[in-house]
Write a structure and sequence with these properties.
Elements lengths: L11 E4 L2 E3 L7 E2 L1 E5 L2 E6 L1 H5 L7 E4 L4 E2 L3 E3 L4 H6 L13 H15 L5 E4 L15 H7 L5 E5 L3 E4 L1 H6 L13 E4 L5 E6 L2 H11 L4 H17 L2 E6 L9 H8 L6 E6 L7 H8 L12 E6 L21 H16 L5 E4 L2 H15 L10 E4 L5 H10 L2 E4 L2 H13 L1 H5 L4 H6 L4 E3 L11 H10 L17 H7 L2 H6 L3
Helix pairs in contact: 7-8, 10-11, 11-12
Length: 489
């Protein structure tokens, strides 16, 4: 702003604002100037108005707060965005009756025989009825449409029409890892059990559409993110190479409206190192442009080290998996690849850090911006190990939905301290914010920010301790400056 008189005129100026810059050297301002795609100056109204030219648009924002564009540092946007226009969402429904009515309304729009689906980001305790839908509920509401309702990654429900379409009582096949619950007569009850991979494979079959549909859905998803104030994201694990085609199409058409960072995740059962070597042979670290950039490895580096959505302690990965992680991490460090690795539990983090510490004996990790993500039950000892290695922490809103499960498996004290964001910040660690949507979290980053500030889980199941809650500005920083740091921006 002091150089305002020497700059070219701005295209747009915002005045009468409370600008939160997240820059410690100048944390607030009253006005802001934009030229092209760049914010060029912040300062007082008088300073910024010196940049007004004959074609400058001056916007009086009426005293509102202006914040940097939000960045979701951990969101499965590439996969979730491609089914955005196909799925229905319940995270804002306060009664089960309204939730079922919204699904019935969507079925009516699509016509008889068309699938409708809800695939996560809801909890029974958000409803006034404090219960999940039953198969009978879905069948009664949707007699003519197959319906699929997934609760996080714990289970999924089909109505009668869904059982019929998938031919579950007539030798119909489901993806490996999906278990069909059956009654005493061997008939499918409509309840399915599975996990992240199996449920994702089943939903991919149910929601299969054309390449054009996937691209248009992803574009609509990014537009919704813009509507919510999001200008950037990092996708930690999108799927196989085919999952990226709609993203590449938008990028090549210069139609991306958010900056996308993506990570390469191994889907091998063994020889993960060879997969990374061959897949990334011609992709150097941080390659790409301002709108689409490769930011390293993640989120599953070695399947045997990934604890999925486990909440309980006691994880003990096989030695072969630990050895493979050491090899992958050594290769990534020597070739200076950033990475992010999944650990829901403190036990998983403990085993991962055992291998990272061995890597760090030969190759320092401090400037690689490696990240450990989730860590719902992380302890002070684990955070100290991360800090010494230079490992940052990426926190999501999983415990918003999973607080009761954390309490049931770890006790109330652990649940009231989950996630350990305050502990990490107080240790001076870099902490970035994500949502982990679209299955566990919601795409609305503001709801994640709200959760970090209030500490109240869905339905008030668990209340985080008051001394562990974040201020509004601390929470905002997780999704702006700190998230940008993760991707070297």
């Amino acid at each position: 702003a002091p150089r305002a008189t020497t700059q070219a005129p701005a295209g747009r100026i915002l005045v009468n604002a409370e600008v939160l810059t997240l820059d410690p050297s100048q944390p607030t301002a009253a006005a802001l100037a934009i030229r092209g795609t760049d914010i060029t100056a912040v300062g007082s109204r008088a300073d910024i108005m010196r940049l007004k030219g004959p074609r400058t648009e001056v916007m009086d924002v009426g005293g509102r707060t202006v914040v940097p564009g939000l960045i979701d540092s951990h969101i499965h946007a590439i996969r979730g965005g491609q089914s955005f226009t196909f799925e229905s969402y319940w995270y804002d429904k306060t009664t089960l009756a309204d939730a079922l009515a919204s699904l019935k309304q969507e079925a009516s729009k699509r016509g008889a025989g068309k699938w409708v689906a809800v695939t996560g980001a809801w909890h029974p305790d958000q409803f006034a009825e404090h219960r999940a839908p039953t198969v009978a509920d879905l069948t009664a509401q949707l007699p003519d449409n197959p319906a699929y309702v997934q609760y996080l990654y714990d289970y999924a429900l089909l109505n009668a029409k869904g059982i019929e379409v998938l031919q579950l009582d007539n030798n119909g096949q489901v993806p490996a890892g999906v278990t069909v619950e059956r009654d005493a007569q061997g008939k499918a009850t409509g309840k399915l059990l599975g996990g992240i991979g199996p449920f994702s494979a089943l939903f991919a079959r149910i929601g299969a559409r054309s390449a054009t549909d996937y691209r248009d859905s992803l574009r609509a998803f990014f537009t919704e993110m813009n509507h919510l104030g999001v200008t950037g994201l990092i996708d930690p694990a999108a799927g196989d190479r085919n999952a990226f085609n709609p993203l590449y199409a938008l990028w090549q058409d210069k139609a991306l409206t958010v900056r996308v960072g993506w990570r390469a995740s191994s889907f091998q059962r063994d020889n993960d190192l060879e997969w990374f070597k061959s897949t990334l042979a011609y992709i150097p670290p941080r390659s790409g442009d301002d709108m689409l950039r490769f930011v390293g490895l993640g989120e599953s580096l070695v399947a045997g080290m990934n604890d999925g959505v486990r909440q309980a302690p006691g994880l003990s990965p096989p030695q072969a998996a630990r050895d493979e992680l050491f090899k992958v991490a050594t290769w990534a460090a020597e070739n200076r690849y950033p990475l992010e690795i999944h650990a829901y539990t403190d036990d998983a983090a403990h085993r991962i850090l055992d291998e990272f510490e061995k890597v760090a004996q030969k190759t320092p990790l401090h400037d690689l911006r490696w990240t450990l993500t989730h860590l719902n039950t992380g302890t002070a000892a684990t955070l100290d190990r991360m800090r010494r290695l230079g490992i940052s922490y990426s926190v999501q809103m999983g415990p918003y939905f999973e607080a009761q499960a954390i309490k049931d498996t770890n006790g109330e004290a652990v649940a009231q301290a989950s996630p350990p964001t305050r502990f990490a910040l107080d240790k001076g660690m870099m902490v970035a914010g994500g949502t982990d949507s679209t299955r566990i979290g919601m795409i609305n980053v503001w709801r994640a920010i709200e959760y970090h500030v209030t500490g109240r889980s869905v339905g008030g199941m668990v209340q985080r301790r008051a001394d562990l809650q974040l201020s509004r500005e601390e929470a905002l920083k997780l999704y702006t400056a700190n998230a940008a740091w993760i991707s070297f921006d």
